[in-house]
Write a structure and sequence with these properties.
752 residues; Ubiquitin-like (UB roll); 20 strands; alpha+beta; Hypothetical protein af1432; Beta Polymerase, domain 2; six-stranded mixed sheet; five-stranded mixed sheet; single chain
């Protein structure tokens, strides 16, 4: 672990060395001369952009980008990544635009810098564990290119190394964020060295006193046990020499943070933490790993239950090693890790190892040296496609589920399936919010409800107390929760409306029979009557019977006649005066009184698509079997045929004086073919405030004239006339009229 740095000592020497490009050049020996020149150009541009800017310790700002690029060079990242590392703060801090970067350094470098800038804008506001996990996943999901995350980790590493220069009040926030977000990402990607460094630096600034105390204890223990460790090393060297096995043995010491975590999690004292020291045994081949294990188990006794085979079953991030804990001299526990050189590179550098391999092992045989299929598949992709996006997709397979991570306006993170929309988001928050949704804003801009969400979006839902779910939402929602809630609401709403309509129809039918007072099923004196009536209809409850009447499954006047007979048995007779008055004033073509429509009826009333009636039209209502009430124009051909066959199912319907919404109707507009004709027609309809719901342009583009068929929403007949006048005044329009031909409207909108 080396000597413990003091908490206030600045990393001035390292930064001074990094201030010039020369310090970085020494690490670029794996690049070609032309590539080094490209990196030099990026350095010059960044140096000029940051001119006059200083870091908190008073050094030129350029020392930071150089240090980040140096870390990336240690990982042997490619030229584009090194250029992006040097330029990563230019977009945000220096007023340089993305377009400038594209012109100077090409699109790939500009995209990397842009990706880093977007990640910097994300703020992690809460310390909740699940929030931290979601934030980590979102960072990974947002980085379309793996190099963005690697540069970000290099950036965070350097910031943490120089955190002592920052104002002390910022230490806790930055260290917590590093510990919760960036260290686990480094671990997930197998960047073991970076992971350990970030943890220790965070611990050092979060809890300086504990860090210093633990550092002293470890230093003391190290000097006290130095002889013991040297003895173990000698004995191990000797046993491998005797077996004539070429090995490289390196000492390993637990980081201060991992010692602290073990003490904290298991409530141990420092003296009880036994595996502070360990050894790595690096051997030529996989078989040698198991041979070395056997040799060590003969030298010292293994601790039961402390053997792990991560070679046969590799960790998700590609890590492979054999682990065993042995009881050494004087009863001290020592951990040994056996691995090949290839496994060691993966263990220390993880995802970055694929660049290290490309740099260190350009020979074809290098593929045999890789200790993991996971890493091999990454190399194959990199060699075959050179596609960073595909490479990153492969890396992400096991990093997180196929999800998008979005923010609420209060910065809470929500995970939703890929392809989820604003409506899915609304239902994920609460079913009441989903049901009342009227609009959505993403990143402050109003968007359609069907808009698919992207990682990092801030989503705001606008609700209205009178709003209800739209059946059309079922066509685009992705989550089962949203789908089931919408269906449940529509079903409940349809049932409630049908029941209300059935009750109204039955009351009207009873009035036509001379009964003014409706026998409520809640009235105990009528319970026997309702029991008999339900036995007659075969329904289980009065609500079910009324719903059936509303849906047209039962005829109201037949049920009413039965009810009158049952009332007569109890001595209640029809009112002769009411009977006479109802028969003289009843709607001329129906056997029941009329129902008033204002557009608030949802599932229980449908407006026929064959004739599309609107306020101002003379209308009739047909109680379809199980469809509820279907409203037609009086002159509609379909309605006439139905009336001929099923006249008892027709009831009188009238428009309310104040309909509350527009209604759909069909138009046929004949135009001369030419450029921009559709735009002119659409503009004419828009200026008349008629919303276009559907357009069918037909297949006659080669002819001189075409019929454009529209479904538009209008308030009433007067509004429709105004829209038609607008159309007729439009150049290129030969004829515009409402489509009263049932057959043709069916042909183009598929309804009937």
């Amino acid at each position: 672990m080396g000597s413990i740095p003091q908490i206030h000592s600045p990393a001035a020497a390292a930064n001074a060395a990094a201030a010039s490009f020369a310090g970085l050049t020494a690490k670029l020996d794996y690049l070609s001369t032309s590539d080094v020149e490209q990196v030099r150009l990026a350095y010059r541009f960044a140096d000029e952009a940051h001119l006059g800017q200083l870091r908190n310790n008073g050094e030129p700002y350029i020392t930071h980008p150089i240090a980040v690029a140096a870390q990336c060079a240690d990982w042997k990242l490619d030229t584009q990544a090194l250029m992006a590392a040097l330029l990563h703060d230019a977009l945000e801090d220096c007023g340089i635009t993305k377009t400038e970067l594209i012109e100077k350094f090409g699109s790939p470098v500009a995209e990397l810098v842009d990706g880093l800038t977007k990640l910097d804008k994300l703020q992690f506001n809460t310390r909740e564990e699940n929030q931290a996990e979601s934030f980590r996943k979102m960072l990974l999901a947002m980085a379309r290119d793996v190099r963005v995350i690697l540069i970000k980790l290099a950036d965070r590493s350097h910031n943490m190394r120089t955190l002592s220069d920052m104002p002390r009040e910022k230490w806790a926030r930055i260290s917590s964020e590093t510990l919760d977000i960036y260290a686990p990402i480094a671990h997930r990607l197998g960047l073991n060295q970076t992971y350990r460094e970030l943890q220790d630096l965070s611990f050092r600034h979060l809890q300086p006193w504990r860090y210093a105390t633990l550092a002293k204890a470890v230093a003391k223990a190290r000097s006290r046990r130095r002889d013991l460790i040297q003895k173990v090393q000698k004995e191990v060297d000797a046993v491998f020499s005797a077996a004539q096995m070429p090995v490289r043995i390196a000492g390993r010491e637990k980081t201060l943070y991992s010692i602290y975590k073990k003490m904290d999690d298991k409530h141990l004292s420092f003296a009880q933490v036994t595996d502070i020291y360990g050894f790595r045994v690096l051997v030529p081949s996989v078989t040698d790993c198991y041979t070395a294990l056997g040799i060590l188990h003969q030298l010292y006794k293994p601790l039961p239950g402390k053997f792990k085979d991560h070679i046969a079953i590799a960790k998700v991030n590609g890590y492979q090693s054999l682990h065993t804990t042995l009881v050494g001299p004087a009863g001290i526990n020592v951990e040994f890790q056996m691995r090949t050189e290839a496994m060691h590179v993966v263990a220390e550098s993880g995802v970055a190892a694929h660049w290290l391999y490309k740099a260190n092992h350009s020979d074809d045989a290098s593929s045999d040296r890789l200790g993991t299929k996971w890493l091999q598949s990454l190399l194959d992709i990199q060699d075959e496609t050179r596609d960073a996006a595909e490479f990153w997709d492969h890396v992400k397979v096991d990093l997180f589920p196929d999800a998008v991570y979005v923010f609420t306006p209060k910065s809470q993170i929500m995970a939703l399936p890929r392809g989820a929309t604003a409506v899915d988001f609304a239902y994920a928050i609460h079913s009441n919010i989903g049901d009342r949704t009227v609009a959505a804003r993403i990143n402050g801009e109003q968007v359609p409800l069907r808009t698919e969400l992207k990682n990092g979006d801030v989503v705001e839902i606008v609700t209205a107390p009178v709003s209800t779910p739209n059946p059309a939402w079922l066509g685009f929602v992705r989550t089962g929760r949203a789908r089931s809630k919408i269906r449940h609401h529509l079903k409940t709403m349809a049932q409630t409306e049908s029941q209300s309509l059935g009750s109204k129809l039955l009351q009207q039918a009873l009035r036509a029979e001379g009964i003014d007072r409706f026998p409520e099923d809640t009235d105990p004196s009528y319970s026997a009557l309702w029991d008999k009536l339900l036995r007659f209809t075969g329904n289980r409850t009065s609500q079910e019977l009324l719903t059936d009447i509303g849906l047209g499954k039962r005829i109201a006047n037949i049920v009413a006649k039965r009810m009158v007979n049952l009332l007569a048995d109890t001595g209640e007779r029809p009112d002769a005066l009411l009977l006479t008055r109802e028969r003289f004033t009843a709607h001329e073509s129906t056997s029941l009184g009329s129902i008033t429509l204002d557009g608030s009826e949802n599932a229980s009333v449908q407006f026929a698509t064959c004739c599309r009636p609107i306020p101002g039209d003379t209308i009739v209502g047909y109680l379809g079997r199980g469809e509820g009430l279907v409203v037609h124009q009086r002159e509609c051909q379909v309605a006439r045929k139905l009336q001929y066959k099923d006249s008892e199912r027709f009831i009188g319907v009238d428009w309310s004086d104040d309909p509350i919404r527009p209604f759909e109707t069909s138009l046929v507009v004949t135009v001369t073919n030419g450029k921009g004709v559709l735009a002119k027609v659409a503009a004419a309809l828009a200026s008349a405030e008629a919303d276009i719901i559907h357009i069918d342009m037909g297949q006659d583009g080669v002819q001189d004239a075409s019929d454009l068929r529209f479904v538009v929403a209008v308030r009433d007949n007067a509004h429709l006339d105004a829209a038609l006048r607008n159309l007729r005044r439009t150049p290129s329009v030969l004829r515009a009229e409402r489509n009263s031909n049932t057959g043709s409207i069916q042909a183009f909108d598929g309804a009937g």
